[in-house]
Amino acid sequence: xLQPVESGGGLVQSGGSLRLTCGASSGTLAYYAIGWFRQVPxxxxxxxxxxxxxxxxxxxxxDSVKGRFTISRDNTENTVYLQMNAxxxxxxxxxxxxxxxxxxxxxxxxxxxxxSWGQGTQVTVSS
Length: 127
Description:
By secondary structure, this protein is an all-beta fold. The chain contains no helices and eleven strands.
């Protein structure tokens, strides 16, 4: 059972960058496609993008982050990264990672056997 652990959040000025890390307290990330999600108070958690578990490591991003965010993975380190550039206050949220079904042309969804959301990591972008 994959238990993800997110880290790397913080306070950054608008236009700045952060790199988030998704690790695992149990389970092996390399076996799964991994997606990133974010949630603001009062709203549902929304997908940002994902990276496949296949050799091509294909990725998908929602329009709001395309060109600014990049997902990568290092299977030797059991880690997935979310590089976030050109941040805006609208990116302020708690960010989560999860094992997902990673589609080519639509947002990812959590795998049906995934039920272990981590605590997430807070990203705050000041204007």
